Amino acid sequence: MSCCAPGAEMALEVAAAASAPPSSEEIKLASRFLGSDIHQTDLSVPTVHCGACIQAIEAALGSVENVESARVNLSTKRVSVRWHGDSVPPFFAVLGRLGYQAHLFDPEIHEKDRTLSELIRAVAVAGFAAGNIMLLSVSVWSGAEGPTRDLFHWLSALIAIPALAFAGGIYFRSAANALRHSRMNMDVPIAVGVSLAYAMSLYETINHGEHAYFDASVSLLFFLLIGRTLDHVMRERARTAVNGLSRLAARGSIVLRDDGTREYVPVAELAAGMRLLIAAGERIPVDGDIISGNSDLDCSIVSGESAPKTVGAGTHVQAGTLNLTGPLTIEATAAAKDSFLAEMVRLMEAAEGGRSRYRRIADRVSALYAPVVHLAAFVTFLGWMVASGDWHRAMTIAIAVLIITCPCALGLAVPIVQVVAARRLFEAGVMVKDGSAMERLAAIDAAVFDKTGTLTLGLPRLVNAASIDPAMLAIAADMAAHSRHPFSKALATYGNDRSRTKFDRVQEEPGFGIEAFAGGDTWRLGRRGWAGWKARTGGEGKYGGLGGTVLAKNGRIVACFAFEDATRPDAKAAVGRLKDAGIPVEMLSGDTARACADAAGILGIDSFVPALLPSGKVERIETLARAGHKVLMVGDGLNDTPALGAAHVSMAPATAADIGRKAADFVFLRESLLAVPLALDVSRKAGRLIRQNVAIAIIYNAFAVPIAILGHVTPLIAAIAMSASSLIVIANALRLQATAKAAPDAAPARRRTDVIEAAHP
Amino acid sequence: MTTLVYLIPVALFLGALGLSGFLWALRSGQYEDLDGAAERILIEPDAQDNEGQRSN
């Protein structure tokens, strides 16, 4: 990809264009106080992707007054700015001038990733120990004897101690935790195998024995930790990308006190009865009633209604809706914890079912595998006791059985495939947030989509452009450029850059439309009743009857505009491919039956349920689940969030509401809906490879266990067999990458509007 | 046997040196922005002068 063309790669224009940059009070609220008058603000800047970007941003921010330092992190696409003084420096204006779009980052999710650094340290220690012990072991295998061999064994025992304590601790803790809850996971046989191998080797070393398995126990930990670390890194990368998306919910609001003072108050401290000032472009923070002001509200993310709602004094508004055109004063009727948003979170928690009951493949396999292996070792011990009566020999062979069956390949079988699959999806702009998500997605047999914002973009599109006089359309487009109403933005794209209409004055009447004056004529673009005040009632109502959007000259209607919700790119193809894969597709929407029928007709969806409340969506999914279906839910709105939680597995677009993105297992960053069939395809392939890998691991055991039971295993054989089986499993997992590369890319990036494209310069 | 007396400690010492070097690099945050570090060598130093040395 060529380097920066700032402005050309606006990530997620859809979400960002409608909302204004955060106020300085909001920035202050989201920044951390570092002491001695210094604040640190973290911004997520998804379009940073090269050295020139770093230089431009750091130089520009560094020269702003009161800024101490600015540091870009290219890997996480963040900028942290340290500043002092009381007033917040204008970061957003500076970044905006450079062509970068930034959003504030929540301080609490900025916490350093402790697990990752613990894992990397453990890998480093285990790698050091494994390398050195292996060198000593090779000398033993090639014939070191007597005191030299004892010296090497003692050294190995010493080197293994920090590795076991540090790297093994992760497995011991996890195994202990599983046993305490009387469950079984893969870490239990690993912990048992590693610690028994060490204990027996130590016993052998003390008694000048020939066989010590220090190398096996440490290199086993090393291999498994690599798999575990890669798994963690992959998920963390996905989570970072999702966290870096712009936040849609309000952080706070300006409160108008009784004495006339204005104060910025965080959402959590808003209480019922407070009067709030909501500027155009801001989201409503809590439920409330409008006291004064007219405006249009975009409810698409809250209720799924695609058309903006005109509101005035007395109307009840819900938290999360976006105020589009005019300033509003509202009286809060509920605190944030009693608002619509909080109610959705409660509904989601109540509905949480499918995924908490799900048991990972690795855990299910180990629940069968561990008892069999441990029983086999015990029987071996009994058998050799009976056959030879030699206590020491029987114990050695039994432990050798445990070591050789220690599930190195099994422990890698699942995570390594998921790492490769997650990477493949990451490149296609699909973030996988949970390792088990792909296992669950591979098992689905029904898909449920939300309409507004998921199958459609939630953005209106002019449908009758061809039948409108081009001159009138150009005038309408020039007027529309002055408004942020979704209809206006759709119209503004028809503007002609060469011949701009000269208006003397343009003003927006919130809730009604736009009025412009040009050379004695009054043009009005907006609601029919307001714009065409001289027209006979319903006179020219070709589109939308009495309603609809019109352009009027001096009160006479000269053009009517009809809009429909634009479908997401490739939505029809995505639905078709899901059907080809044998997945029936259903649409659940909060929108009207007519809007749903139109969309369903265009997209080829046979069944849909309109006008659903959030609880209705959950009920529908639970009904499907009771009928034995495993349901995939794809949705973006606040009203979909409980359903996302209730479904077996869930996906959300990057433009979804914050809690929806948090609840979903997959988040796709590109506009194209083909992400859904792609994720299904990759998950199914991954599922197949996981089963193959488990089979390989079991076949390996079928050969290795008899050799071990017969007492022919030496540390050399154990080392070769275990490494070989791990390598085969890894090689098999890598086939996923190879087949994916060979196949034509399923989701080509058609526009450079996505974050991930920017991530790979 | 006598060679081993100093060869093995030397080998272990060098290994431990590498390990502690890695752990130090990890702790001092050198792995936090791998992509950025690769690009920063291309940035002209005089453009960075006014920002001085930074610890993180």
Could you explain the architecture of this structure?
The complex is a heterodimer of chains A (761) and B (56). Chain A has 761 residues and is an alpha+beta fold. Chain A is built from 27 helices and 28 strands. Chain A has five domains: 99 residues, Alpha-Beta Plaits, CATH 3.30.70.100; 249 residues, no CATH class; 89 residues, Calcium-transporting ATPase, cytoplasmic transduction domain A; 132 residues, Rossmann fold (3-Layer(aba) Sandwich), CATH 3.40.50.1000; 98 residues, Calcium-transporting ATPase, cytoplasmic domain N (3-Layer(aba) Sandwich). Chain A has a seven-stranded mixed sheet with strand order 15-28-27-26-16-24-25, with helices on both faces. In chain A, strands 7-6-8-14-9-12 form a six-stranded antiparallel sheet. In chain A, strands 1, 2, 3, 4 and 5 form a five-stranded antiparallel sheet that branches. In chain A, β21 and β22 form a beta hairpin. Chain A is elongated and about 110 Å long. By secondary structure, chain B is mainly alpha-helical. Chain B has one domain. Helices cover 66% and strands 0% of the residues of chain B. Chain B contains three helices and no strands.
Question: Descriptors for this entry?
Answer:
heterodimer; A: 761 residues; alpha+beta; Alpha-Beta Plaits; 6-stranded antiparallel β-sheet; 27 helices; 28 strands; elongated; disordered N terminus; B: 56 residues; 3 helices; 0% strand
- Which sheet architecture does the biggest sheet of chain A show? 7 strands, mixed
What is the CA-based Rg of chain A, rounded? 32 Å
Please give the order of strands in the largest beta sheet of chain A: 15-28-27-26-16-24-25
- Roughly how much helix do the residues of chain B carry, as a percent range? 55-70%
